[in-house]
Every structure is written in structure tokens, then in C-alpha cells.
UniProtKB/TrEMBL annotation:
<comment type="similarity">
    <text>Belongs to the class-I pyridine nucleotide-disulfide oxidoreductase family.</text>
</comment>
<keyword id="KW-0274">FAD</keyword>
<keyword id="KW-0285">Flavoprotein</keyword>
<protein>
    <submittedName>
        <fullName>FAD-dependent oxidoreductase</fullName>
    </submittedName>
</protein>
<dbReference type="InterPro" id="IPR036188">
    <property type="entry name" value="FAD/NAD-bd_sf"/>
</dbReference>
<dbReference type="Pfam" id="PF02852">
    <property type="entry name" value="Pyr_redox_dim"/>
</dbReference>
<feature type="domain" description="FAD/NAD(P)-binding">
    <location>
        <begin position="8"/>
        <end position="320"/>
    </location>
</feature>
<feature type="domain" description="Pyridine nucleotide-disulphide oxidoreductase dimerisation">
    <location>
        <begin position="378"/>
        <end position="486"/>
    </location>
</feature>
<dbReference type="Pfam" id="PF07992">
    <property type="entry name" value="Pyr_redox_2"/>
</dbReference>
<dbReference type="InterPro" id="IPR001100">
    <property type="entry name" value="Pyr_nuc-diS_OxRdtase"/>
</dbReference>
<dbReference type="InterPro" id="IPR016156">
    <property type="entry name" value="FAD/NAD-linked_Rdtase_dimer_sf"/>
</dbReference>
<dbReference type="InterPro" id="IPR004099">
    <property type="entry name" value="Pyr_nucl-diS_OxRdtase_dimer"/>
</dbReference>
<dbReference type="InterPro" id="IPR023753">
    <property type="entry name" value="FAD/NAD-binding_dom"/>
</dbReference>
Length: 491
């Protein structure tokens, strides 16, 4: 067995969260090994947020052009996927090449090791025949992969996940989307706007089932208006592929056919690959539970999707900030202890981390390290209209026994909504804790639903009293001014 190499920190998985941790710690002067088995940057830049939002930007441009009729004359729209595919290939992903990200990490002093990392005992990580022993700890940021349900016949077919949907160069004529969650709806609308015949099949009784029912209704209506067929309450039972077309057979004798089948039924963390048993942890869980400083156990942290706190890039980044502060605080303490006892630096290596940490001005003791708080977790589904939400839904609040007040207003009844006319579907829904006099949840659906959400996130995060929200000035005529109407409606 190879002799373990001593380093300060090992980061396994350089997706959004892991890359941020690895880069910032390397920048601060720690010796950091980052292990990545695919592309540095992970899902978001190559097969997730960024390319999908480029697709949405293009699809929304088509939709806006189609709205010219009746507002500003006439417009003829001829969709062409080629510029979208080109932009994703050339601008977003460098043809799925991570050289820029890899060089950025190594340029900051980090050491990139390609391969699959797994724990090999406390503080130890193995990758191939290399073994690293981490002085300060190990950070796990291995994310999630598509969760593909065990539907009869599916595994033997050339179905798509988000990877093939993002990489597509030529659009199919028809597409079945299995799963009516955020990713399924975003991609379904994009492809429909480019002329693909899209059918969404969802097992639950509504699409976007984690959000408010009113949001599901608006989103479903918007997609239907784009020509998407939506079937809810249909459990997929069997998938067949005859060499050209897919047939999906569902509960109640339903059957759907299309050229392609996109499976977007959720994401799964693959914990069994991580050697968790070597540090006494249960790998059979769905996610890796963490405390409010992202500790899995002593000297092992986790960030991002793997923690199960929300599969969003902003969660991974938020958690990464806490992990970075925690590790730096511990490294400084260890360094100060070693200096006081006159021994050589424990955070050192060739880079002299002890002195550079001191110079970096990183905050001091563990007492100042922030703790994760997910009360005001924002989430946006980038359909058109956008569905933005923060905190609890009305049902979640009621289930918690909170004395709930609800305020609701349609965007179309606001001045800006009325001016906007076509494409103004949406609403603001507020969920308040009547006893505390604060908002604990809100949903903002509309053409700029994700942007309007920001004011509501501040209100939930800072527990701004309702009395203050009612007595502030909302610019006229903005979409966000509808928040004031929803506040008036709170009862
Ligand atoms: C289509 C789509 C659209 C999305 N849109 C949005 C959006 O608009 N906004 C948003 O906030 N979020 C969005 N997301 C979610 C977002 O992409 C994820 O939440 C984010 O990428 C999670 O980051 P992460 O660091 O947890 O893991 P990931 O980005 O999944 O990265 C994990 C990395 O770990 C590597 N890895 C795994 N196991 C090992 C191992 N054993 N050894 C070495 N390396 C390993 C993987 O190769 C990968 O590179 C979207 C996701 C998808 C699929």
C-alpha cells in the first residue's frame, strides 16, 4: 500500500461546492488536494444551470417575438436550434472541457488529482493507488446524479437524462418528459418553443408539486399554451423502444409515444461509493446528514446536493462559505497553538500556510463561523412565467401548527401586469405567521418572478415585521409593487 501523503485538506468532488472550498482554501495558503473524476465545476456549468438557462433565454426570445402580434405589429419567428447548441458548446462549456477551471484551481496553488476519491479511514482519502492524509480534514462535495426509477424496460433503452438534453445538436420531432418537476418543466417548455411536440408525464397529481398549488396551475397553463401536453397522476409502468421510437405505458392503460424520452425524476447521491464505512458512517442513507457547520463527523465536512438541504447551486455556494470559514478558523487555531509551543507549523507545507493564513486576515475563532440557516431558502423554476418561492408553503406552515395568514394577489390586477398584458400570468402569495407578525414563506410567479422574489427573501430572512412591510414604498409601476397588494390581502 502506498505511503499516505500529508496535506492540509482533501476535497472529494470539485462541483460547485467542492470547487469553491478547494479554491478559497488554496488561495488562503493551505495545501489542498482536489479530486475530480469528471469535469471541474460539476453539473451546474456543463449540464445544469448555465446551459439550461442559455436554452431558456433563447426560448423566451422566441416567445416574446410571438407576442409582438397584438402589441407592436407582426413578427415572423423561425426557430433555429443551431445557435443555441453552438452557444452551449462554445461559450458555456468549451465543448465540455474544464481546462479553464482546472487551471484556475492549480493557479491558486491547489493540486488537482483526476479520479474517483473514497475515504480510507479517518482523515484519509484514496484515489487510484494514491493515498492522502488530511491534517485539517476532508470535504465531500460529490453531488448527485439523475435518479432513474426502476421502470420495467427503461434501463435497456437509449433514454436521455439532463446530459443528453443539454448536449443535443439536433432536436427530435417529439419528446416525452418523464417528471414534472422544475428541470422537467424548464426543458419541456424550451423544446416546445423550438417546435418539438412535448408530452410531460408526472406521477403526482400536479406538476411542480413541491410548490404552492396555484403555482402548479399557472405553470401548467403556460406550458399548455406553448403546446405541451401534460398528464398528471400517471405512474409509468413500462418503457419500450423499437429502435426508433419510445412508448411509455402508464397506469390506467395510458400509452405515450415519442422519438425521445427524457427522464428527469429527481437526483440521487451515491453514498456507497465514498467509503463512509471506513469512518463508521452509514452509507445506506439517501443523503449525508450534516450539522449547521456542515460537519458530517469530526474533520469531515460535506457541501452541496449531497447534504440533502436543497439541490441548488446557491445552497452549495452558501454551505461552501461556512466550510471555508470553519476550516480556516481551525487552521489558524492549530497554527497559533503550534507557534505558541514553538513547534514547526502544522498548517504548512511548502507554501508556509501559517504565515499566509495570518496575512490573509481570515476570521479568527470557530465562534465567529456562521451557522447554516435554511429558513429563507429561495428557489426559482425558470419557466415563463418564472416561479420563485422562499420559505414555507401554506400547507407546510399549517402542518407545523403555525397560526397562518395568507395574502394573495394576481399580477394581472397590478398596474404593471395590466400594462404588460400578454404574458402577465402570475401572482404573489404570502404566508405569514400571525402570532409573530412576520412572513415565513412567499411565492412570486410572473415574467420576473425570480427577481421579484428577492424582496420576499429579505423579508423572510430578516423576519421583517409585517407592519414595516406595509409601511414602505414600492416603486410604481413595478411587478414587485404587487407585494403591497398581497400584504393588504393578508387576513
Ligand atoms: C438541468 C439542471 C438545471 C439546474 N438549474 C439550476 C438552477 O437554475 N439554479 C440552481 O441553483 N441549481 C440548478 N441546478 C442544480 C445544480 O446544478 C446543483 O445543485 C449543483 O451543481 C450542486 O453542486 P454540488 O457541488 O453539490 O455537486 P455537482 O455539481 O453535482 O458536482 C459534484 C462533482 O463531484 C464529482 N464526483 C462525484 N463523486 C466523485 C468521487 N468519488 N471522486 C471524485 N469526484 C467525484 C462529480 O464528477 C462532479 O463533478 C440544476 C441542475 C440541473 C441538472
Amino acid at each position: 500500500m502506498a505511503e499516505p501523503e500529508l496535506v492540509d485538506v482533501v476535497v472529494v468532488g470539485l462541483g460547485v461546492g467542492g470547487e469553491e472550498v478547494a479554491e478559497r482554501l488554496a488561495e488562503a495558503g493551505l495545501s489542498v488536494v482536489g479530486i475530480e473524476r469528471d469535469l471541474v465545476g460539476g453539473e451546474c456549468p456543463y449540464w445544469g444551470c448555465i446551459p439550461s438557462k442559455m436554452m431558456i433565454r433563447a426560448a423566451n426570445a422566441l416567445a416574446e417575438a410571438r407576442r409582438v402580434d397584438g402589441l407592436a405589429g407582426t413578427a415572423q419567428v423561425q426557430p433555429d436550434w443551431a445557435p443555441v447548441a453552438k452557444r452551449i458548446r462554445e461559450e458555456a462549456t468549451d465543448t465540455w472541457d474544464d481546462t479553464v477551471a482546472a487551471d484556475r484551481f492549480t493557479g491558486l496553488g491547489g493540486r488537482l488529482v483526476r479520479g474517483s476519491g473514497r475515504l480510507d479511514g479517518p482523515g484519509r482519502v484514496r484515489v487510484g493507488d494514491q493515498v492522502f492524509q488530511a491534517r485539517h480534514g476532508v470535504v465531500l462535495g460529490t453531488g448527485t446524479r439523475p435518479s432513474v426509477p426502476p421502470i420495467d424496460g427503461l434501463a435497456d433503452t437509449p433514454y436521455w437524462t439532463n446530459h443528453q438534453a443539454i448536449e443535443v445538436e439536433e432536436l427530435p420531432e417529439s419528446l416525452l418528459v418523464l417528471g414534472g418537476g422544475a428541470i422537467g418543466l424548464e426543458l419541456a417548455q424550451v423544446f416546445a418553443r423550438f417546435g418539438v411536440r412535448v408530452t410531460v408525464v408526472e406521477a403526482l397529481d400536479r406538476v411542480l408539486a413541491v410548490e404552492e398549488p396555484e403555482a402548479s396551475e399557472v405553470a401548467a397553463a403556460a406550458l399548455r399554451a406553448d403546446g405541451v401536453e401534460i398528464h398528471t397522476g400517471v405512474r409509468a409502468e413500462r418503457v419500450e423502444h423499437d429502435g426508433t421510437r419510445f412508448t411509455l405505458r402508464g397506469s390506467g392503460g395510458s400509452a405515450f409515444t415519442a422519438d425521445r424520452l427524457l427522464v428527469v425524476t429527481g437526483r440521487k447521491a451515491h453514498l456507497t461509493e465514498l467509503g463512509l464505512d471506513t469512518i463508521g458512517l452509514d452509507a445506506s442513507q439517501r443523503y449525508l446528514p450534516v450539522d449547521d457547520r456542515l460537519h458530517v463527523t469530526d474533520q469531515v465536512w460535506a457541501v452541496g446536493d449531497i447534504t440533502g438541504e436543497g439541490a441548488f447551486t446557491h445552497i452549495a455556494m452558501y454551505q461552501a462559505g461556512i466550510v471555508i470559514a470553519d476550516i480556516l478558523a481551525r487552521a489558524r487555531q492549530a497554527s497559533a497553538g503550534a507557534d505558541a509551543s514553538g513547534t514547526s507549523s502544522v498548517v504548512g507545507g511548502a507554501m508556509g500556510a501559517s504565515s499566509s493564513l495570518a496575512a490573509s486576515g481570515s476570521s479568527g475563532s470557530a465562534g465567529t463561523v456562521p451557522r447554516a440557516d435554511y429558513r429563507a431558502l429561495p428557489r426559482v423554476t425558470f419557466t415563463d412565467p418564472e416561479v420563485g418561492a422562499v420559505g414555507l408553503t401554506e400547507q407546510q406552515a399549517r402542518e407545523r401548527g403555525i397560526n397562518v395568514q395568507v395574502g394573495f394577489t394576481k399580477l394581472g390586477s397590478s398596474t404593471r401586469g395590466w400594462i404588460h398584458r400578454v404574458g402577465d400570468d402570475g401572482f404573489i402569495k404570502l404566508v405569514a405567521d400571525a402570532d409573530q407578525g412576520v412572513l415565513i414563506g412567499a411565492t412570486s410567479v410572473g415574467p420576473a418572478g425570480g427577481e421579484v422574489l428577492s424582496a420576499l427573501v429579505v423579508a423572510v430572512h430578516a423576519a421583517v415585521p409585517l407592519s414595516q412591510l406595509r409601511h414602505m414604498i414600492y416603486a410604481y409601476p413595478t411587478f414587485h409593487r404587487a407585494i403591497e397588494s398581497a400584504l393588504h390581502d393578508l387576513s
